[in-house]
Amino acid sequence: MASDGGGIAYFHFGHVSFLLQDFCAEYFAENFMMHILVEDVNSWWEQVQESGVQEKYGVRVTELENQPWRMREFCPRSIGCSLAHWSKHRLNTRAEIGDTGNGK
Predict the structure, then answer these.
(1) Which DSSP string corresponds to 5-55?
(2) How many Å is the Cα radius of gyration of the chain?
(3) Chain segment 76-91, per-residue pLDDT in tens
């Protein structure tokens, strides 16, 4: 996290930055989903783990997971809602998608 204050948290890592506002409208929280596509989702996950956001804001961060739609992703979640899915654009190799070649 680059900074926080006044109800805004500014996150920056590599060539990507975004703002999170301390504002919750239940209707939007229940009906909004955002995917943030990044080239190196592993580095982003590590950055989130090291940032202290989990302890400071009570955010739970899922493990990295390869999805059937060929994206590797993790998801930070606040109490009761998902903030965003962070995903690698597309998994291309068998190793990236966890395919051993034997049908399992």
Answers:
(1) ETTEEEEEETTEEEEEES---HHHHHH---EEEES-HHHHHHHHHHHTHHH
(2) 15
(3) 876 555 566 666 766 5
Question: Do residues 18 and 36 touch, judged by C-beta distance below 8 A?
Answer: yes
CA-CA distance, 41 to 73, in Å (whole number)? Answer: 7
Consecutive H or E run containing 74: strand 72-74
Instruction: Give the separation between CA 65 and CA 61, rounded to whole angstroms.
Output: 12
DSSP secondary structure letter of residue 94: H
∠ CA 24-25-28, rounded to 5°: 110
Tens-digit pLDDT profile for residues 21-63: 777 777 776 677 778 888 889 998 998 899 888 887 778 889 9
Q: Model pTM greater than 0.70?
A: no
Helix (H) / strand (E) containing 61:
strand 60-61
